[in-house]
Design brief:
The complex is a heterodimer of chains A (94) and B (373).
Chain A lengths: L1 H17 L19 H15 L16 H25 L1
Chain B lengths: L5 E5 L5 H11 L26 E9 L2 E15 L2 E13 L10 H12 L3 E6 L5 H8 L3 E4 L2 E5 L2 H7 L7 H13 L1 H11 L10 E5 L5 H10 L5 E3 L3 H7 L8 E7 L2 E12 L10 E10 L4 H15 L3 E5 L3 H9 L3 E3 L3 E5 L1 H10 L6 E2 L12
Classes of the chains: A mainly alpha (94), B alpha+beta (373).
């Protein structure tokens, strides 16, 4: 949980630095408020990939995954954990 | 919190009602097209064995349609190598009116790429369009396909060209010039200053009925002379431009006994058109020849359209040989909003095949076809 909070703060900073949008709360609905549209959403995904070293597959995403900073942080944390598990499994297999 | 996943799936009969409802919700957005309320697209529906066809795919959330796109599948020759290519057309997302669905646009693009990584969009209309900006953000490359025009009847042109008659002063000025006879003098003067078109006595033009073996033979001669060209053999041409459709003028151009090329023309009387008013517009929609024969085909096509009495001639052509042919026939190059946008994988293939992109042969026969003409 602590990790997700750290990621959320990073996502909040990233939105401000890269997409020039200020989001007051980690729970703000980024889609309903129009902060993200299809274009800024793609840009955000690219920045997330760059910042966190992830590969986010659009086909696996659902709207709820990007609803708020909190949801995005959960997505990033989940992806990082999945990646770590794969690499640990890979080491074990060797 | 539970939520329903969005699936992108082929358009099936049970979704026609949901499509009608989607169109109704989208009406306030004034999108210039609607999703058809029948499962088969009106143009190029998929039949067994057809080399070129279209399918409609829908983004569906719990039985509700939230987006759609039409996908045209066709084979292309890349310097003689035949590969399947997809054209993503008329993508539409509920995200336009409801930001909660902003993910639909990227999902649609991704779905098209999953079906065919070598994909493109053609036409589009504006660099600033939401779809252009989205595709560019997703790494697609934008190229402008040149636009050429030739004014035959200056009076009609100046009275009707709404694209340019944008201010009261311009409208007044164009009306004065149109009525003064300067317009006629201008159009004739432009022709007088042209380099002579090849008026080779050996050239002749026939109205082609169905495309047949002669078109296949021409296709085989041309297919490795362009870095990217859609397969245009007789089976494809008879689907795109069926002999039963009287609106297409199908020309076969002969140089002696040799087939130099073919051209598909339209001669359309516009009615209160947002760009062309009430002009009679002649278009060179599609054409094929060896690059060195392009000027012969253009010259023959232009003579046919001029003889029919069109006020204005138009063509969009990407390949420099066809552009040169049009200029030799008196066309001018105008500002173009006919855009080609290529997926990352198609862009890479083109960069390998043709780093200068100078060998691509695309025109209004590609993409979503000769619409708005």
């Amino acid at each position: 949980m602590l990790y997700e909070e750290d990621v959320a703060s990073e996502v909040q900073a990233l939105l401000s630095e890269k997409l020039f949008v200020t989001v007051e709360s980690h729970e703000t609905d980024l889609l309903a408020t129009g902060i993200l549209d299809s274009l800024t959403l793609v840009q955000l995904l690219m920045h997330l990939e760059e910042r966190f070293g992830l590969r986010v597959a659009v086909e696996d995403l659902e709207i709820e995954d990007l609803r708020s900073i909190h949801a995005i942080a959960r997505l990033v944390a989940h992806q990082k954990r999945a990646r770590a598990a794969v690499s640990m499994h890979g080491v074990g297999a060797d | 919190m539970t939520h329903v996943a969005i699936q992108i799936q082929p358009y099936t009969e049970e979704l026609t009602g949901a499509v009608a409802e989607f169109n109704r919700r989208m009406r306030p957005a004034r999108v210039p097209f609607r999703v058809p309320e029948t499962t088969a697209p009106s143009w190029l529906p998929k039949f067994d064995g057809r080399k070129v066809h279209q399918e409609i795919f829908l983004a569906v959330e719990d039985g509700c349609v939230r987006g759609a796109y039409t996908f045209k599948q066709q084979q292309f020759s890349f310097g003689g190598r035949i590969l399947p290519v997809g054209a993503c057309q008329m993508p539409i997302s509920e995200g336009i009116i409801d930001k909660r669905y902003s993910l639909i646009g990227p999902k649609i693009v991704n779905d098209a790429l999953r079906r065919q990584p070598l994909s493109y969009g053609l036409g589009i209309g504006s660099r600033d369009a939401a779809v252009t900006r989205l595709l560019t953000a997703m790494g697609w490359r934008l190229t402008v396909i040149p636009f050429f025009f030739k004014v035959r009847h200056g009076f009609q042109f100046l009275r009707n060209i709404r694209y340019l008659r944008t201010t009261r002063f311009r409208r007044w000025l164009f009306d004065v010039v149109a009525c003064s006879g300067l317009a006629w003098a201008g159009a004739e003067g432009a022709d007088a200053g042209l380099p002579r078109m090849s008026s080779d006595a050996a050239l002749s033009v026939e109205h082609a009925g169905e495309f047949s073996a002669w078109a296949d033979e021409l296709w085989w001669r041309c297919r490795d002379r362009y870095s990217m060209v859609a397969v245009r053999d007789s089976s494809v041409l008879n689907v795109l431009y069926p002999a039963t459709d009287a609106k297409f003028i199908r020309l076969k151009i002969l140089d002696g006994h040799r087939v130099a090329g073919w051209a598909i023309l339209l001669d359309s009387v516009m009615s209160d058109d947002k760009y062309f008013g009430n002009m009679r517009v002649g278009s060179i929609v599609d054409c094929l020849a060896l690059p060195e024969d392009a000027n012969k085909v253009v010259g023959a096509a232009v003579r046919v359209l001029e003889k029919r009495g069109v006020d204005l001639l138009l063509s969009n052509q990407s390949h420099p040989a066809w552009g040169r042919g049009l200029k030799m026939a008196g066309f001018l190059e105008g500002p173009s909003n006919f855009l080609l946008i290529t997926s990352q994988q198609l862009t890479r293939l083109l960069d390998e095949e043709d780093p200068s992109s100078g060998g691509i042969h695309l025109n209004r026969g590609d993409g979503d076809g000769p619409i708005h003409l």
